[in-house]
């Protein structure tokens, strides 16, 4: 049987930081209010496009795998904030990398975008269509954020992560997965003004309003991820005790805590980085997974559980069997251009542009 081994990993976080105290300069909020309700302390604001973030993350993933861009046969890019809809964003990453042998696919499932992309790439490798793939989760939420809405403005940030997958005879990589969607609840989390539905309706691109019913999202998120985890574990014939580490979508610390209790898992097994980056939508779970690998949280020959949820309301869980290597084979000099502004200054520029 063919498997899709994860042999490379990389992330790219913009250097500009937006703290809770920064948010308090233009919103009626403070650090205690945000931290107690979300677990977030700061988030990143990008000075470049989402494709540029993805390019750097992919270059680092390739270096970690000891591969070059010519080795890539498929690029699957999960995001909500693509630079363009046509042509697709994955083709731009292909061009930036020089990955001329790669087919290119965009996936749009909001916060589960990176994980759904992992499912697509894994399936393509397992079915023999391709032998290798780059999986991307990346977002630049800041330009479309409604910075006047405290309910959402404190939650989101920008970032990117990538995984390199390759054909393997060893049982490794994603071994089971469960995907689903509460379509009837799609309107409780939506970006109004972002899409062709709003074309020629008197809105400028980026002038959006967010529908965000927090309590309903909380309930659906926990229920969806719990259901997905149960399905994926059952398919893998594993109990919760056999999972060595859990790397969940980092949208709200209370959601994570509630999910862990429902799954009856040891909280010490759960990787948390929400305090550093907030919710980066499609990038969130993959960034957390990459950091977990880099920080030695993922053990050799262990089982990892990756639950996620997002707009739609989409939900998922992946059981990954990790291999023997937890260190990068190489590094790369590919990096973002210098950023000369603070996170607050970048946000102030976005707010000013929307008020013209």
UniProtKB/TrEMBL annotation:
Example of a GO biological process term: fatty acid biosynthetic process
Any one GO molecular-function label of the UniProt entry: 3-oxoacyl-[acyl-carrier-protein] synthase activity
Enzyme class: transferase
Family: Belongs to the thiolase-like superfamily. FabH family.
Alphabetically ordered keywords of this record: Acyltransferase, Cytoplasm, Fatty acid biosynthesis, Fatty acid metabolism, Lipid biosynthesis, Lipid metabolism, Multifunctional enzyme, Transferase
Pathway where it operates: Lipid metabolism
Protein name, entry field: 3-oxoacyl-ACP synthase
Coiled coil residues, start to end: none
Taxonomic superkingdom: Bacteria
Pfam family membership, one: ACP_syn_III_C
UniProt domain Beta-ketoacyl-[acyl-carrier-protein] synthase III N-terminal: residue ranges: 105-183
Domain Beta-ketoacyl-[acyl-carrier-protein] synthase III C-terminal: 233-322
Classification via NCBIfam families: fabH (TIGR00747), PRK09352.1 (NF006829)
CDD domains referenced in this protein's UniProt entry, alphabetically: KAS_III (cd00830)
Enzyme Commission code(s) on record: 2.3.1.180
């Amino acid at each position: 049987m063919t498997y899709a081994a994860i042999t490379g990993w990389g992330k790219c976080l913009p250097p500009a930081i937006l703290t809770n105290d920064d948010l308090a300069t233009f919103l009626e909020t403070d650090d205690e209010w945000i931290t107690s309700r979300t677990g977030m302390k700061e988030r990143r604001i990008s000075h470049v496009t989402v494709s540029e973030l993805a390019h750097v993350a992919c270059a680092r993933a390739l270096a970690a795998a000891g591969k070059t861009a010519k080795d890539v046969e498929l690029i699957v890019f999960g995001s909500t904030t693509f630079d363009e809809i046509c042509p697709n964003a994955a083709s731009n990453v292909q061009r930036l990398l020089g990955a001329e042998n790669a087919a290119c696919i965009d996936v749009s499932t909001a916060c589960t975008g990176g994980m759904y992309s992992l499912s697509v790439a894994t399936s393509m490798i397992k079915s023999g269509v391709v032998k290798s793939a780059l999986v991307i989760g990346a977002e630049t939420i800041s330009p479309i954020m409604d910075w006047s809405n405290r309910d959402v403005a404190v939650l989101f940030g920008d970032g990117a992560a990538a995984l390199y997958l390759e054909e393997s005879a060893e049982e490794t990589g994603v071994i089971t997965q469960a995907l689903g969607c509460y379509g009837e609840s799609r309107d409780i989390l939506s970006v109004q003004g972002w899409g062709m539905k709003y074309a020629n309706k008197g809105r400028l691109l980026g002038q959006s309003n967010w529908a965000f019913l927090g309590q309903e999202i909380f309930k659906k998120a926990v229920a969806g991820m719990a259901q997905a985890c149960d399905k994926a574990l059952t398919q893998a014939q594993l109990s919760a005790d056999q999972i060595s580490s859990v790397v969940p979508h980092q949208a709200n610390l209370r959601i994570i805590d509630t999910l862990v209790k429902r799954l009856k898992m040891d909280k010490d097994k759960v990787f948390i980085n929400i305090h550093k980056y907030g919710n980066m939508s499609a990038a969130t779970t993959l960034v957390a997974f990459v950091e977990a690998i880099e920080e030695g949280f993922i053990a050799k020959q262990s089982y990892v559980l990756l639950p996620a949820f997002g707009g739609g309301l989409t939900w998922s869980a992946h059981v990954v069997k990790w291999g023997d290597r937890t260190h990068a084979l190489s590094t790369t000099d590919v990096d973002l251009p210098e950023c000369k502004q603070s996170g607050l200054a970048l946000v102030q520029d976005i707010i000013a542009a929307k008020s013209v």
